[in-house]
Amino acid sequence: MKFKLIAFSALLALLSISSCRDEDIGPLLICGVYDPVLELTWLAQKTAQINQAGNGSDIYLSAGVYQGQSVIIEKNCCISCGSVFVVYACDGQVLGFLGTGGIDPASIEDETIIWRGANFTCGV
């Protein structure tokens, strides 16, 4: 009985240690690169323009998959602005806009934030 209790305790300890280990998934590959904000020229220029214009506090970029291809989405968190969120292909071409009559936001898969503007103030 004592042996079973010790074996069970050891097994429980081993399982709890192994279940808490962080899974290292590595960097995300977006548009064929690991750092699209720096490695895609058009995106580096866009982020610089946003910050230089002083709009970085509300604007952020996310990446996702739309119809099997990587996309970049320019968003902001200004609720009262009536904003249009632009969806870009990896080469910088506009694919469309999120929302009514445009690209259904639910059709964007695996979306993740890849950049926040200077002095970003939003909670996303």
Brief descriptors of the model:
signal; five-stranded antiparallel β-sheet; 124 residues; globular; 27% helix; alpha+beta
Polypeptide structure, described:
By secondary structure, this protein is of the alpha+beta class. Helices cover 27% and strands 26% of the residues. Strands 4-3-2-1-5 form a five-stranded antiparallel sheet, with no helix packed on it.
Strand order of the largest sheet: 4-3-2-1-5
Mean pLDDT: 81
- In DSSP terms (H or I, runs of 4 or more residues), the helix count works out at 3
Low-confidence stretches: 3-25
End-to-end distance, in Å? 53 Å
Q: Based on DSSP secondary structure assignment, what is the total number of beta strands?
A: 5
Shape: globular
Main beta sheet: 5 strands, antiparallel
Topology pattern, helix = H, strand = E: HHHEEEEE
Q: What structural class do helix, strand and pairing data support?
A: alpha+beta
Gyration radius, to the nearest Å? 21 Å
What amount of the residues lies in strands?
25-35%
> Percent range for helical residues?
25-40%
Taken together, the total number of domains comes to: 1
Assembly state here? single chain
Keywords: Signal
Topology readout:
Blueprint: H1 2-19, H2 36-39, H3 41-52, E1 59-66, E2 69-76, E3 86-88, E4 94-97, E5 108-116
Antiparallel strand pairs: 1-2, 1-5, 2-3, 3-4
A few lines on this structure:
By secondary structure, the chain is α+β, with helices and mostly antiparallel strands.
